[in-house]
Design brief:
The chain has 291 residues and is of the alpha/beta class. The protein has 12 helices and 12 strands. The chain is globular, with a radius of gyration of 19 Å. The structure holds NADP nicotinamide-adenine-dinucleotide phosphate (NAP).
Length: 291
Amino acid sequence: MASILLIGPGAIGATLTAWLAQDDRHDVAVAARTPFDSIEVQTPEGILRARPRVFTEFGQVSPVDWVLVATKAYDSDSAAAWFPTACGPRTRVAVIQNGVEHIARFAKHFDVARIVPVMINLPAERLSPGRTIQRGPAQMVVPAGPNGEDFLELFAHTNFDAKATDDFVSAVWRKLCLNSSGAISAVLLKPQGIVHHEGVAEAMRTIIRECIAVGRAEGAKLEDAIVDDLIERAKRGPRDDTNSMLADRRTGRPMECDARNGVIVRLGRKHGIAAPMNALMVSLLEASQQN
Ligand SMILES: NC(=O)c1ccc[n+]([C@@H]2O[C@H](COP(=O)([O-])OP(=O)(O)OC[C@H]3O[C@@H](n4cnc5c(N)ncnc54)[C@H](OP(=O)(O)O)[C@@H]3O)[C@@H](O)[C@H]2O)c1
């Protein structure tokens, strides 16, 4: 039996909570900013329901085996405010977010030896608090080692494609290539179909090339072919596909532009690699949220 506290029960967090709650070996609770009574997730296999305990105040929680953080990257510091009451000497913290700085974001809050960074591909959308749609299969990748293996064991009863890798750095930078190029969609307030505009496709290629250059300097193995693969895949995909930065901008929420584009500029600077197209995306998205 593992005790689990999931912090941030949004699209990803509520979906994962529903899956975890199907295994009666787990004692699952959530730490929420916006309370709700129950979780209902429409998955490709049918509806999953769960009634985890929902906490909204730090004093309501006590130390657990696993803390799973599934907030947006920009809410990492506020998520860590749960740690003093949720974490004990044996607690491990899994960070289930996009970007490449899973550990860096929490290093000032927790023992890095007990942090498990998780790369997740799981198309999920939040309909209302506690209500989500999982639109496709789930894939999770963690670093090889005891912490990663124990994390994957929590999901052993699911049909997730969940595995450990010796090269987590390449896995997260590969995903960042895709996520960084999505910034153009958020800037233009248009879904994926804008990739059919050749000038836009070329700008996306530039964003991805910058990401590859910085990722390689950080130790990721990324082939040149990623650039055209991603553009061709986007062209074949649904024209109305909406990435989460676009969805966040449309609903007036903050965007993960630092975690997806700013990081390429910041880490590029460290290695003497310019990333002007990513810097432009950050400036335009930041400016779009100013009055
Ligand atoms: N959605 C996807 O398809 C998808 C796929 C792959 C990866 N990801 C990544 O997964 C991460 C989570 O994304 P998401 O789409 O699930 O985000 P989301 O739907 O915006 O959910 C985030 C949740 O965190 C809650 N929250 C924020 N600060 C909190 C705090 N201090 N304490 C407790 N709860 C807090 C929010 O509360 P409120 O309800 O009050 O807003 C919300 O419920 C992101 O890094 C994202 O890029 C998402």
